[in-house]
Design a protein that fits this description.
five-stranded parallel beta sheet; Fumarate Reductase Iron-sulfur Protein, Chain B, domain 2; FAD/NAD(P)-binding domain; binds flavin-adenine dinucleotide; binds iron/sulfur cluster; alpha/beta
Length: 477
């Protein structure tokens, strides 16, 4: 009888790739998880029970063909696994690293629900495509024929780049405009290297350029530039993300030493390229030797606390107004932060800052969780008389992001936006009410996830290709 290749979740335990010890990893910005050895990847993939109705797949925003590429990996057919994986995901090795798998694919794996520990889907996805890069299987796009239509994409984050890739596959001419000097959006300048090393992002940018995508960098699109881009291309995709930091307005909030998370993280990522960053070099955005307090409980806050540790802060504390069970950030990242020496002050909220010119402390009020509010979450309530001052000489605000005012910035009062300022666009196509103008990613969803931006980019590109095909068919009649 043929040996059974799959369903080994009863005999084989769940094993993640090796994680570097906290003492070893907290002084550098290298990724903390190692790669699986090939035998280990095959073994872990073989734990999958090949569900007839795979919940992992239906909870992956890209509907990746997970059971198929797990089976191909388990049976040593890695090149086919790569082909299957890249057919639905533009950046599988990036999603494998930074998707919150516990909330998406892995969190819905049925063998976890039967108590055996989820299949390590993300780590295997990363392994498949990293191996494909090593073996030279990842090739630039080479469309069967070139087309005359062109698309201008404003914003070179994961959404814009996923759209660029799909459009080039159809032979459409693509130009990506970005205000930064490197493409990649938050993959490049937001997410720190210990979660996603920057050469992983840059090799994708290079691959797209080799496949014919034109990049216009250092190009901050304003009203005049928007008109120029719209006139030049047959369609325009707005993929600008959300960058306006939510702020605090309370006594002392204007003191020096109180900084925005995005400024802090961007400076740190730029330094990892060896760039000259004045506000890092003069100490303003550098945690070295400082008592750091980060305010917030999301993934951005986790990235700030762990970056502060690596920069050599003397202490790093994270204030969050709810408790651990109710924080929005990933539990895995919180645990990583604790291992690295971050102290979490749960049920703690700022009410002001101490200091004359520069901050010296955060006035903290203690909270308890009260009755659930309209959203069903327990609302934090102040505990009277329990206030204290948390010493700090660098405070980082990681309170979330909002969209910039695009109708004003782009001089397009007709660009429809929601009451939150996100662009109104049709589900599954990204079409706005402006002719030939599409919008995708965070600027439509609000601050979201890389995998959703990729999904939007791919869907939007397909919609544009369909529109171009229909127009070409009508013209040919
Ligand atoms: P972005 O990645 O924001 O890219 C937008 C691009 O548009 C940028 O390059 C910007 O320079 C450019 N741009 C903006 N305005 C203009 C203009 N006027 N002219 C020209 N160019 C412009 N998601 C995860 O899935 N996993 C994580 O671990 C994770 N960690 C995160 C950590 C941090 C610190 C942050 C801030 C976010 C994190 N996210 C994470 C969220 C994720 O990064 C975003 O959801 C995703 O990058 C959105 O993609 P996007 O293409 O819509 O926009
Ligand atoms: Fe899971 Fe993200 Fe990969 Fe989908 S893209 S399989 S959600 S890691
Ligand atoms: Fe395999 Fe889990 Fe997906 Fe089922 S849910 S197909 S066991 S990875």
């Amino acid at each position: 009888m043929a040996k059974q290749a799959m369903l080994k979740f009863v005999q084989i335990d769940r094993v993640m790739p090796e994680k570097r010890a906290a003492d070893d990893r907290k002084d550098d910005f290298d990724e903390i998880y190692a790669e699986y050895a090939s035998a280990k990847a095959e073994e872990q993939a073989s734990r999958c029970s090949q569900c007839g109705v795979p919940y992992c797949q239906s909870h992956c925003p890209l509907h990746n063909n997970i059971p198929d590429w797990l089976r191909l990996t388990a049976t040593g057919r890695l090149q086919e696994a790569y082909q299957t994986s890249q057919a639905t995901n533009t950046f599988p090795e990036i999603c494998g690293r930074i998707c919150p798998q516990d909330r998406l694919c892995e969190g819905n794996c049925v063998i976890e629900q039967s108590g055996h520990g989820t299949v390590t889907i993300g780590s295997i996805e990363k392994y498949i495509t990293d191996t494909a890069w090593d073996k030279g299987w990842v090739m630039p796009v080479s469309p069967p024929s070139e087309r005359s239509e062109s698309v201008g994409i404003i914003g070179g984050g994961p959404g814009g780049l996923a759209a660029a890739d799909m459009l080039r596959r159809a032979g459409i001419q693509v130009t990506v405009y970005d205000r930064y000097d490197r493409a990649g959006g938050l993959l490049m300048y937001g997410i720190p290297g210990f979660k996603l090393e920057k050469d992983i992002v840059q090799r994708r940018n290079d691959l797209l350029a080799d496949g014919g995508v034109e990049f216009v960098l250092n190009c901050d699109v304003d009203a005049a530039k928007f008109d120029e881009i719209r006139a030049k291309h047959d369609a325009v995709i707005i993929a600008t993300g959300v960058y306006k930091s939510r702020d605090l307005s309370m006594p002392g909030s204007g003191l020096d030493g109180i900084e925005k998370a995005i400024d802090f993280l961007t400076a740190s990522n730029r330094k990892s390229f060896g760039d000259v960053v004045e506000d890092f070099d003069n100490g303003r955005l550098n945690a070295k030797g400082k008592k750091v307090v980060v305010i917030g409980g999301g993934d951005t806050a986790m990235d700030c606390v762990r970056t502060s540790i690596r920069q050599g802060a003397t202490s790093v504390k994270c204030l969050y107004r709810r408790d651990r069970a109710n924080m929005p950030g990933s539990q895995r990242e919180t645990q990583n932060a604790e291992e690295e020496g971050v102290i979490f002050e749960w049920l703690s909220a700022p009410k002001g800052f101490t200091g004359d010119d520069s901050v010296t402390g955060v006035m903290v009020q203690k909270m308890r969780l009260g009755q659930p509010d309209a959203s069903g979450r327990q609302a934090p309530e102040v505990i009277e008389g329990a206030d204290y001052v948390e010493e700090a000489d660098l405070v980082i605000k990681a309170l979330g992001f909002e969209p910039e005012d695009l109708p004003t910035l782009f001089g397009q009062p007709d660009l429809p936006v929601t009451r939150w300022g996100t662009v109104k666009a049709a589900f599954q196509t990204g079409a706005t009410e402006m002719d030939g103008v599409y919008a995708i990613g965070d600027i439509v969803r609000g601050a979201s996830l890389v995998v959703w931006a990729i999904r939007d980019g791919r869907d939007c590109a397909n919609a544009i290709i369909d529109t171009f095909n229909s127009k070409a068919a009508i013209a040919a009649e």
